[in-house]
Amino acid sequence: MLRPAMESDHRAAYPMSEEDRRIQETARRFVDEELIPWEVHAEEHGGRIPEDVRERHHRRAIELGLFAMNMPRELGGGGFTTFQQVLVSEQLGRATNALGWCVHTPPSWAPGVVTPEQLERWIVPTIRGERRECYAITEPEAGSDVDAIRTTARREGDAYVLNGLKWHVTSFNVADYCFVQAKLEGGSHAGEHAMFFVDKDTPGVRLVREPAYSHTFPDTHAVVAFEDVRVPASNRIGEEGDGLTFTYAWFRYERLMIAARCCGAAERLIEEATAFAKERVQFGRPIVEHQAVAHMLADSVTELWAARLMTYRLAGDIDRGVDVKVQHARCSMAKLFASEMANRVADRAVQIFGGRGYMRENVAERFYRELRVERIWEGTSEIQRNIVADQLAKRGVRTLAG
User: Which segment of 3-12, 27-36, 175-184, 229-238 scores lowest on mean pLDDT?
Assistant: First the structure.
């Protein structure tokens, strides 16, 4: 846990209200006291921790007001500003093994577009922590190119019939319903996207397999088949053709929170590597006094500061209502820079720890594996660069960079 003097320095790095600081410190204590102590156990047990501990983390996240922090207060959510959500996500990013996922954020775009019936059936129970969703979007032939999906939705009377195969359905094993994205087959909106609520127990929803991944998380990333899945038309979210709009909103949010989590991970790595470098003696002196090690730490903390300032400023701009297309570009910029930064920091931390850094009980080894996916999911680094370059050509450097 940060010592008081360091805490003061951290607060001075960016202006915050007292409420912002309270939320940040609440999240930090939760991570330090509840989550981090269980990292090695999780790593040694396939990402899982004892069920009673998992339930305690879930309840504690709700008690502290962190759960559903992105949802309106009138629906039972935290009603946090975007900046406050970044502060929380940054702290959650300091824990490995996805232990921070006990602080769940349902889709913030949903309350404004779903029907009252959908709100009561799916969204409000999710805000209360009674239900859990997953996204079924990615497919074998459609990753970064979302428009290439082949899953279809065919209207039949008062229902739609869904057919397709989805990959990387994160948290399918702990969810009880899915947001399924499909292309409309037939009708005036043929070829356009639509999104649907689909309960997992709906006939035709079939778990194909749960591949193993580099990280050791409790949530799986399943391959799921939808075979003649019949859902009522009332399960459609918004209008026909609206599906991509919701996906892009989700991407913007997730890209910003990925940037925040990467800042948290980098901070933890720098703290741990610096402490080790001050204690580890080689050739008669602490390795922090060797220039090669000192420069790795200096580069790391410099890049962290830049990424944090970018992420914080973007969150504040979103709260102030910056144009959504500028948001889209800047969320890509933040994810790109912070995820690449965190991967560099993790690589340096492994090097500083030496052989210890290659042991799974070491935080650097776990982050070295876990952070790699941040450059891939919710849009690869290459896709983020395409988005930024496109917006730069259309809007100019002053619009994107100030």
Answer: 3-12
Quote the DSSP letter at residue 46. T
Write the single-letter amino acid at 62.
I
Using CA atoms, how far apart are residues 224 and 237, in angstroms rounded to an integer? 20
Query: Token pair 């899915």 is at which residue?
Result: 178
Instruction: Please give the Cα distance from 214 to 203 (Å, whole number).
Output: 32
- Its pTM stands at 0.95
Would you say 88 and 27 are in contact if contact means Cβ atoms under 8 Å apart? Answer: yes
Distance CA 124, CA 401 (A): 38
State the catalytic residue, choosing from 51, 139, 378, 382: 378
pLDDT at residue 334 greater than cutoff 70: yes
Look up 378 and say whether it is catalytic.
Answer: yes
3-state SS assignment for residue 290:
coil
Q: Which of 172, 196, 65, 35 is nearest to 127 (CA)?
A: 65
Q: Using one digit for the tens of pLDDT, what is the confidence trace for 67-85?
A: 999 999 999 999 999 999 9
* Concatenated DSSP letters of 339-375: HHHHHHHHHHHHHHHGGGGGSTTSHHHHHHHHGGGGG
Residues 181 and 212: beta-carbon distance below 8 Å: no
What number of other Cβ atoms are within 10 A of residue 322's Cβ?
Answer: 14
Q: Which residues lie below 8 Å from residue 54, measured CB to CB, with a gap of 6+?
A: 48, 102, 218
